[in-house]
Automatic annotation (TrEMBL):
UniProt entry tagged with the keyword NAD: yes
Reaction equation(s) it catalyzes: D-mannitol 1-phosphate + NAD(+) = beta-D-fructose 6-phosphate + NADH + H(+)
Mannitol dehydrogenase C-terminal domain mapped to chain residues: 279-462
E.C. numbers: 1.1.1.17
Protein name: Mannitol-1-phosphate 5-dehydrogenase
S-adenosyl-L-methionine recorded as keyword: no
Length: 473
């Protein structure tokens, strides 16, 4: 790999940037995607009044705040192509970072500031606190109930509601809320969650005000962004000569499609390659079912066959076969998307998955399966069931998860899932029989009663249970 010399500072005057966006959840993806798009504009001298103020709501986010502060909130973004091409950029669009557990009032006052016109989120699927049973915001969650009674909230919806309440009291128009998480109808989900929270916590008409006044454009986001580790820090040091405590490494591909509904304005994102549309749903369905669904299809079989990296898994014929068959099933549930050749999109996906240089791990994809399998994978089989079609590959992908989960629990560990205790209970109830997990996991819904799905799932379990870890590749 050969890289050009990258300056340690962005090539624009950051003193002149003023805040316009608050972003909750400054993880690797925000830094490879939304912050990168804004940086593209700043390099052209536009959007100087849309600087990003990052916010961390979790205690562990203090580390990101400290690292960024140490680096004047700048960091190195390295795009690694599959053919060895390297593009490195020093990103300067984040101008501050607030840590809510340390100073919640600073966050609330910033949310109430008229300068802030957009609040965006990357808080993972789990951050939306959706009930498994109803698919809606879970108002019975103990943390939500506690937050509804707190003067100074701690959760994302508590913070947003309190910030918007201050604005309403002060006669300041509400900011636009933009979810950038991989969730079907992410703006709609955020609206329903925030309104539900406001109804629980405030009896002064705040919920109705939010429902009537706040815009929640839906968005589709895409860029494969692995976790940063020592190897990535070393790469930045060795290749670029830069000491960066928390660089971001990602693929060259990036896409952002957003519904153009911003009452208080927005950066001229279209100048940076963002697609502003009336309806994001077709783009979102394509991306979540084809890309994220494939990630789910490869993750658990990949782990069972002993793979560490995604490109390794995608070099294993057994994994590729499952992913290709899953894609055949998924493609039939994706309607045409304006301006996109779906066959070419699918081929490009396989190339992206094969990128050996970004070192994306199978483990990252296999985190929080109980959020991701029902969101990305099962809707394919559910749609096909309604159309009278079978989905054996989707069932086999879910079977790989079940076998992996039983192995994880039996080996004394736990699946890397925020609901690990529920999985462990289901494994215990089923007598460690992976086939028994289907009936015990509500999120399979009607598929549990579909004989063809059950048969393919059980067959997958029998087949995958014979895999000797480490035999793959
Ligand atoms: N990494 C990718 O390839 C990628 C690509 C597209 C979309 N995304 C979306 O971005 C999300 C984050 O990915 P990442 O790679 O940045 O992960 P990350 O682990 O680097 O960062 C996650 C961030 O979410 C915050 N968070 C988690 N739970 C929260 C909660 N309950 N309340 C408030 N904040 C919470 C954390 O504080 C952290 O800042 C994904 O879950 C996905 O929805 C990621
Ligand atoms: O980030 P998640 O949890 O929604 O899903 C894991 C991966 O599928 C995801 O991060 C992809 O890499 C990403 O969606 C690519 O744009």
């Amino acid at each position: 790999m050969v890289a050009a010399v990258v300056p340690n500072v962005p090539p624009y005057d950051r003193e002149d940037i003023t805040p316009g966006i608050m972003h909750i959840g400054v993880g690797n993806f925000h830094r490879s995607h939304q912050a990168m798009y804004l940086d593209r504009l700043l390099r052209r001298g536009i959007a100087m009044d849309w600087g990003i103020v990052g916010v961390g709501l979790l205690p562990g986010d203090a580390r990101m705040g400290a690292v960024l502060r140490e680096q004047a909130f700048t960091y190195t973004l390295v795009e690694l192509a599959g053919d060895g091409g390297v593009t490195a950029t020093r990103i300067g669009s984040i101008i501050d970072h607030l840590h809510a557990p340390s100073d919640p009032i600073a966050v609330l006052e910033s949310l109430a500031s008229p300068a802030i016109r957009i609040v965006s989120l990357t808080i993972t699927e789990g951050g939306y606190n959706t009930s498994e049973a109803t698919g809606e915001f879970d108002g019975t969650d103990p943390e939500v109930l506690a937050d509804a009674r707190r003067v100074t909230p701690r959760t994302v919806f508590g913070m947003l509601a309190a910030g918007l309440r201050r604005r309403r009291e002060r006669g300041i128009a509400p900011f636009t809320v933009v979810s950038c998480d991989n969730i079907v109808g992410n703006g709609d989900v955020t609206r329903r969650a925030l309104v539900a929270f406001a109804r629980l916590a405030h009896d002064d008409g705040l919920a109705e005000w939010i429902e009537g006044e706040v815009a929640f454009p839906n968005s589709m986001v895409d860029r494969i962004t692995p976790v940063t580790g020592d190897a990535e820090r070393a790469l930045v040091r060795d290749l670029l000569g830069i000491e960066d405590a928390w660089p971001v490494v990602c693929e060259p591909f990036a896409q952002w499609v957003i519904e153009d509904d911003f009452p208080l304005g927005r950066p001229a994102w279209e100048e940076a390659g963002v697609q502003l549309v009336d309806d994001v749903a077709p783009f979102e369905r394509m991306k979540l079912r084809l890309l994220n669904g494939s990630h789910q299809a490869m993750a658990y079989l990949g782990l069972l066959r002993g793979h560490t990296f995604v490109n390794e898994a995608m070099g294993d014929p057994a994994v590729v076969e499952l992913v290709e068959h899953y894609l055949d099933e998924a493609a039939g549930t994706v309607p045409p998307v304006a301006g996109i050749d779906l066959a070419a999109y699918r081929m490009r996906l396989m190339e992206r998955f094969g990128n050996a240089n970004i070192r994306d791990t199978v483990e990252r994809l296999a985190t929080d399966a109980t959020d991701r399998i029902p969101t990305f994978l099962l809707p394919v089989a559910q749609d096909r069931l309604r159309a009278g079609l079978a989905s054996p590959a989707t069932a086999r992908a879910a079977a790989a998860w079940a076998v992996h989960s039983v192995r994880a629990v039996r080996s004394g560990g736990a699946p890397n899932d925020r609901r690990a205790d529920r999985i462990a209970a289901a494994v215990a109830e089923s007598g460690a029989d992976a086939a028994g997990l289907l009936a015990r996991c509500e999120w399979f819904g009607a598929l549990r009663d579909d004989a063809a799905f059950v048969e393919a799932f059980e067959q997958g379990v029998r087949e995958f249970a014979t895999i000797d870890p480490g035999a793959g590749g």
